[in-house]
Amino acid sequence: MAGIKSRVICNDLLRRITSGDLSGVLMLPAEIKLAETYACSRPTIRKALSELREAGYITGSKGSGSYVTGPAQVPRKDNTETFLGIIFPNMGPEYFFDLLCNNLARRASENGYSLVFGGYVSPKSEMLKSDIMQICDRYIAQKIKGIFFAPFGYHSKSDQINKEIIYSFSGAGIPVVLLDSNIERYPLPNNFDLVSLNHIQAGYVITEHLIKRNAKRLFFLAPPNSHHSVRMRLVGCRAAMTDGGIMPGEDTFVEMERDDIGALSRFIDEKKPEAILCSNDMTAMSIMQSLEKLGRGIPGDIMIAGFDNLSKVMLFSRSITSIEQPIDDISRAALALMVERMAAQDKPVSHVSFSGTLVVGESTAAPLEAGIINGE
Fold first, then answer.
1. CATH topology for 199-325+357-373?
2. 71 DSSP assignment
3. What CA–CA distances, in Å, run from 61 to 45, 66, 67?
4. Strand order across the 357-360 sheet
5. Which of 90, 100, 85 is nearest to 179 (CA)?
6. Is the pLDDT of residue 205 over 50?
7. Would strands 371-373 and 357-360 be described as parallel, antiparallel, or unpaired?
8. How high is the pLDDT of residue 171?
9. CB atoms < 10 A from the CB of 2, how many?
10. Which pTM value belongs to this model?
């Protein structure tokens, strides 16, 4: 994955070189400064610089700095190369959006496009709006041809900020393809191209699994101000509960910070859940760790499930029952929609969704029972 990250950074530096932003014998910023700018490790920066050096765009060696070579000395790519941008919330190096960004960068490169990187932004940053608008302004000034945008959540003003982001690009005539979530709450209409997991179906499938494991007291837990996609997963969860003979109450949906062990303890004592469906695997992993500190057995006392199938990617101690997202399919469809939108900005809006795969882990089943199940 680090190799794909370096390619995204390499593309961004290359765009700045070929556009004339960097030229002549200008010295690039030091590795440590570039690592801060791109929120990555220095080895990742070194790999990106190495690719540029091998292609002849920069010169210099380790310890002496890197210099942009003159245009007469470098066999440059022509100016017809199409640069695309991406904006997504930084939730950690292995979070779903990070994996999707890497996959999308690879697919774009394979199809003759370059995905450039605007910078990481934490969704809980006090400076979220100013940080993200700086990235938007930079993309607009650079005349990026299209933007992939995964809307922000986990912030009290996420809805407002998401709309300002998308309309800033629309106003500049730059097409936008949304990833994972709409900027409006379900079921309000979607006015922009969107590629995502079928969140309602995913919520239904994984809830159905929990019910088949004899969970009757079942709750859906998410951090406050979660993405709109989480609400759609809740819709699927409630539908499966109803079909399974369990009447979902107003307290089925629980909003709680994933690391608030005190609130979790009070919730467990009061509601006595048999299963907790978490909004994603990051939340599920935090809840599992807290439950273990509280002396609760998993899955013996409480079953836990989530979405995105990240427990193995993150080398978590126990596998989590989850819905795996078809990242390759989402990336392919997102790029195809972007190409269509760039060719005809007045075409009808498209919404493409994909079914996920239920992956049964130790959090709802004994180790020997764990495995991939399609539709059970």
1. Rossmann fold (3.40.50)
2. G
3. 13, 7, 9
4. 253-255, 218-222, 275-278, 303-307, 321-324, 357-360, 371-373
5. 100
6. yes
7. antiparallel
8. 92
9. 13
10. 0.79
Q: What Å distances lie between residue 91 and 37, 95, 154, CA to CA?
A: 17, 6, 10
Supply the DSSP symbol for 27.
B
- Asked if 84 contacts 147 with a C-beta cutoff of 8 angstroms, the reply is yes
On the question of pLDDT at 270 being above 50, the answer is: yes
Quote the tokens at residue 257. Answer: 């910070």
Tokens of 9: 């950074």
Report the DSSP pairing between strands 82-87 and 113-117: parallel
- The count of C-alpha atoms lying within 13 angstroms of the C-alpha of 34, restricted to the half-sphere facing its C-beta, is 22
Tokens of residue 5, six digits: 């990250």
**Is the Cβ–Cβ distance between 236 and 207 less than 8 Å?**
yes
Q: Strands (DSSP E) along the chain, which ranges?
A: 58-59, 67-68, 82-87, 113-117, 146-149, 176-179, 193-197, 218-222, 253-255, 275-278, 303-307, 321-324, 351-354, 357-360, 371-373
Distances (CA, A) of 182 to 209, 211, 352: 27, 29, 12
Say if residue 298's pLDDT is above 60.
yes
Cα gap 273→301, rounded to integer Å:
9
Separation of alpha carbons 137 and 370, rounded Å: 48
- Residue spans per domain, the chain: 199-325+357-373
**Cis peptide bond N-terminal to 187, omega within 30:** yes
Find all residues with CB under 8 Å of 17, minimum gap 6, and list them.
Answer: 23, 52, 57, 58, 68
pLDDT at 70 over 60: no
Burial class (CB in 10 A: 0-12, 13-18, 19+), 318: middle
What integer pLDDT is reported at residue 335 of this predicted model?
94
pLDDT in tens, 222-236: 999 998 999 999 999
Distance CA 86, CA 104 (A): 9
Give residue 62's pLDDT band: very low, low, confident or very high (50, 70, 90): low
H or E stretch covering 302: none
- 3-class DSSP assignment, residue 51: helix
Tell me how crowded residue 282 is: count the other CB atoms within 10 A of its CB.
Answer: 22
